Amino acid sequence: MLSFLSTPFWGIFLTIIVYWIGQQLFKKFPIFIFQPLFIGMVLGILVLIGLSGLLRQPIVSLYKQYKVGGDLIFWFLSPATMAFAVPLYKRRDLVKRYWLRIFTSLFVGLTIALFIIFAISRLFGLSKIATIAMLPQAATTAIALPISSVIAGGGQLGTTASSITAMAVIVNAVVIYALGSQIVRWFRLDKDPMGLGLAFGTAGHAIGSAKAIEIGEVEGAMASISMVVIGLIVDLIVPTFAKLMGLM
Amino acid sequence: MENNHKKEAAPLLTQFLIFSTILLVANILSIGISLMWSEFPVPTPLIGLILLFMALVSGLVKLEQVESLSTNLIGLIGLLFVPSGISLASSLDLFKQEGIKIIVVVIISTVVLLLSIAYTSQLVAKINDKLHHKS
């Protein structure tokens, strides 16, 4: 009977139900910690831990069973990432007018951020694998995970690094959702709507972009553009950076 | 800016066909690149995004042929992230040892990314304005 756990139906159901619960909670209590994605991730992991205790099986083997269905949903992240070409195309006027400014800001900004993130990881004494996982976090999941995995050397190490990167990308979004508006006020970033949008899209990905749309139209458009362009830039400079720092 | 009289969305199958064709081509290109430069992975979705954008700009693909599927996929993006979040269950050992430190580093990194991009953009705008005033 328990063999249902290793069919795709289980993983698909678990993914949808935990996200749905997250969404309902968020509707009732719109506090940042109830971000549906965050709740979904925590609930999903808790269910797997609970089952692992109940069935006396290691958590890793329960995750492998979940993954059969989870991977089916995960696959759709590829077309969904590709779909961002449409909002980008709709605002191609902004891209055309400001491409140099967008590209320079993101390229220089990300390079500076990489040095600081690397220094902080060292300061906190993170292991090599966790440090690697911190580097591609400016890119959205479908782009960041493969990069993280390759830098870590693929295989089991690659899986570990990309799962940490996956969590980092989710925490980025939760932090921007929770503190984005306050940070804007503290650091007086609201006088430059373009920079604000670029920063929200880079640091908060899709959820940061949604927040940027709430702030204003230019901010929202810039955030969706930056998500795309930063993916490209991360792809260009993060492997080189990792090599220079002796992580690869 | 956009044409106001929107054309009717293409049938779902057409939209699926366009998406899967572009993804397949993107995947072949991604494999090709990884064979030439194995240390510089270019993920399939990133190539797909660029290809779809180029196809739209060149008129090869019309907006109404991809728009509704794109909107739906982007609307579901939170759900699509859930399995990658749950993948942390496979690395709980590392997470038990370093979890708190990792989360603190990620929170600081988020703020670093936000400020670094926002300030660089302000600086680039200032330089840009100066250059334009001079010329």
TrEMBL record, chain A:
The chain crosses the membrane at residues 6-22, 29-52, 72-89, 98-120, 132-152, 164-184, 221-242. GO terms for cellular component: membrane. It is found in: Membrane. The keyword Transmembrane helix applies. InterPro entries: CidB/LrgB. Keywords: Membrane, Transmembrane, Transmembrane helix. Signal peptide: none annotated. It is a multi-pass membrane protein. It comes from the Bacteria. PANTHER family: PLASTIDAL GLYCOLATE_GLYCERATE TRANSLOCATOR 1, CHLOROPLASTIC, PUTATIVE SEROTONIN TRANSPORTER. This is LrgB family protein. It comes from Leuconostoc gelidum subsp. gelidum.
TrEMBL record, chain B:
It is found in: Cell membrane. InterPro entries: LrgA/CidA. The keyword Plastid does not apply. Pfam families: LrgA. Its main location: membrane. Keywords: Cell membrane, Membrane, Transmembrane, Transmembrane helix. It comes from the Bacteria. The chain crosses the membrane at residues 12-37, 43-61, 73-90, 102-125. It is a multi-pass membrane protein. GO terms for cellular component: plasma membrane. This is CidA/LrgA family protein. It comes from Leuconostoc gelidum subsp. gelidum.
